[in-house]
């Protein structure tokens, strides 16, 4: 009866928007002890918007937005899209920059008339030896504690201002975390974002174990470390960046809206966008395996 039970379980899962690759994937999903989730695009909508623009004294908001958008025109990051669409609403053409470089987990830089402009997080500015003005730094910390992502703009060695971006938490993320926890699963969050921002989102959805300010390859290390302790680890992600971590996990879950590369590396694909489907997938797998035994 075993193969039949698995077929029934797999097709029941498919009716619930959960596509299980094969019987091994179903079996493994029933043994998970931990689920690692990416913040951006998984717990949040992945559609950030600019919520505040704070120039340093003597600088105007529109100048800060214009230079920030001109820098982001060379980037495909979700934060870049948000900055560009805020500028688009103003209808003013972008400045021409050259020598664009994107620094993963940090931000972007480019040049205009021989002067370097950069845009990114505090780690990026620190590494470049730029001092953050005290007033704006307090503002950045205040916004980050509320789940906002601070993005700094600098010209040469001077900070021009600060933008705050906010990516709304999906309405069902907290319920999904609670459902997983009721199944005895420890939920762990991984994010390349600012520590305070990541912790604010984690608190909002009920996650206590948080890894923030990490690079994509470090997400894989978080999973390996858990596996070395004997844990069975699921990973939920949507981005190209998440593919190695999805492959390393015992069960990789790709969200339906995710990139093709995420889906190719997944054991279970969720054809909807809700993290609740991960809890459903695990519940169906567990029920199926229990019936077999
Ligand atoms: P995640 O997808 O987990 O949030 P990323 O590695 O894509 O992480 O980005 C991490 C951080 O690096 C962002 O939160 C942001 O602070 C900074 N960053 C990366 N790319 C950009 C960009 N194009 N513009 C502004 N900030 C960026
Ligand atoms: Mg990402």
Provide the fold topology.
Elements: H1 2-15, E1 18-20, H2 23-29, E2 34-38, H3 39-43, E3 49-55, H4 61-72, H5 78-88, E4 98-103, E5 107-112, E6 115-120, H6 122-127, H7 134-144, E7 149-155, E8 158-166, H8 173-182, E9 186-190, H9 195-205, E10 209-211, H10 216-228, E11 233-237, H11 243-248, E12 251-255, H12 260-264, E13 268-270, H13 276-292
The structure holds adenosine-5'-diphosphate (ADP) and magnesium ion (MG).
Q: Would you give an account of this structure?
A:
Belongs to the cation transport ATPase (P-type) (TC 3.A.3) family. Type IB subfamily. Keywords: ATP-binding, Cell membrane, Copper, Copper transport, Ion transport, Magnesium, Membrane, Metal-binding, Nucleotide-binding, Phosphoprotein, Repeat, Translocase, Transmembrane, Transmembrane helix, Transport. By secondary structure, this protein is α/β, with parallel strands linked by helices. Helices cover 44% and strands 24% of the residues. It has helices at residues 2-15, 23-29, 39-43, 61-72, 78-88, 122-127, 134-144, 173-182, 195-205, 216-228, 243-248, 260-264, 276-292, and strands at residues 18-20, 34-38, 49-55, 98-103, 107-112, 115-120, 149-155, 158-166, 186-190, 209-211, 233-237, 251-255, 268-270. Helix 11 links the parallel strand 11 (233-237) and strand 12 (251-255). Helix 1 (2-15) runs antiparallel to helix 13 (276-292). It is elongated, with a radius of gyration of 21 Å. The termini are close together. The model has no long low-confidence stretch (mean pLDDT 92). Residues 39-40, 72, 75, 77, 79-80, 104-108, 119-121, 149, 151, 191-193 line the site of adenosine-5'-diphosphate (ADP).
